[in-house]
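Quick one: structure for this chain?
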Amino acid sequence: IPVFLPENTPKEAVDVMLANILAGPLIDMAAHLAELTKARGLITLSGILEQQADAVVKAYSPWFDMHTVASKDEWVRIDGIKR
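Got it. Here's what it folds into:
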């Protein structure tokens, strides 16, 4: 799996996007990550506390059909399919 820092992100869209960072940066990067994900592509977001999940889902909802798929202790993983 290739891994990139934001300043080195390739310009072509991908079928699967994985981001494991805190909710604040995930929200800030929603439009950028959406741009880099192909239509019908999968996005998986983690590093999110349960109380932050709704805000993350809301930030990605303009582009993705999002749902929480896993939680452990107070952490959640959210998956989505790009429309």
